[in-house]
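Question (not urgent): is this output format expected?
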Amino acid sequence: MSRNLKAEARQIFEAGLKAVDPKEAVKRSVTLEGNRLHIGEKELDLSEFSHVWAIGAGKASASMAQAVEEILGDLVSGGLVIVKYDYRAPLQKIRLEEAGHPTPDENGWRATQQLASLVEKMARKDLVLFLLSGGGSALLPMPVESITLEEKMVTTNLLLKSGATIQEMNTIRKHLSQIKGGRLASLAHPATLVSLVLSDVVGDPLDVIASGPTVGDPSTFQDCSAVLERYSLREKVPPSVRSYLEAGTKGEVAETPKPDDTIFLDTYTTLVGNNLQALRAAAEEAQVLGYKTLILSSMIEGDTTEAAGFHTALLKEIARSGHPVGPPACLISGGETTVVVKGKGKGGRNLEFCLAAALDLEGLTGVCLLSGGTDGTDGPTDAAGAVVDGDTVGKALIKGLIPREFLAENDSYHFFEHLDDLLITGPTNTNVMDLLVMLVSAHPKTKVLG
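Got this back:
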């Protein structure tokens, strides 16, 4: 059977996206029976509360808020969610504000101040539903008073380009914020606070997802210092940031609230969706299409180019020997790799992954690889990622494109734009990291070139 591998890879990717639709994810986790509100394993009697508020931040928070409004109806008193530009959903009682991501902006700063002001007014008989998803760190910019928003933006951009992991980035973000690292829970105290979380972090650590505004923070100022040293950023960050973090290591600035703090006694968290859910749904779609399917991992991390090499090695092994699964085969994985930006081009980790993979797969027929961000945007681009095969490099050379030059310049977006191989989804209103689909048809072989 002749297969359109690129089309089938996109179909499998889209099935994974559908499974982590944030609105449906909330509805699977939240139900209302009379006055009894069930959120995960937690049951709340709404007659004990005077108001129910919904607040949130992240690329999926508007859709999550829409689900809350549909479930609770007139029981919702109001609220505020902050989303990335264009990641909207129609809301009735919960106000929506749009802001910058991945770099914070003035809109995010103003919206976060408004959210903090709302939360500070909460009393013991208020119930606060906090709707959190990936992107929440950038969308909740409220730096400590000695640091300006611009200085925090500079720090964020340095971390983004350094190759720091999301865990390391958020360690810094938490300690420079008035709202992250458990401080939102401190503002909401003594209200009852329930967080609904859509994870975009490998392993789903609650203190790392969007910098953990409502959970205790196990990281310290000493950890921040170690991150700056590891990536040679101590002398590059603004002086105010360096001074503040150094004061924290000396005990001159209060630490973030730790997990055993009493402010967390009336806080609860439920994970409503993650990367593995997307992988499982993608695998089911691949099986329907007739592929022998294997999920590798939802926890892929590390250098993007190195991760690409590992995945293409598996594709080559299947093409050569039929191991670890024989063709027609589909391998699926997820996670979030990192790119050290050295060039001046335009791209993101998925696009760079695909460009590195295309070089490895040059000349191999019957194979296809797709890597895409489930949020629909890869880095500062309008593409989720790209899709490649053994012909990608050859097509580029015919057009006069030198793939390794684009890779060295971190310009993978323009490379794939020339080839019409960008994966364009538009805003998906969800975010559970990246989804990688690899296909091997029944009879792959290597072309003899020249």
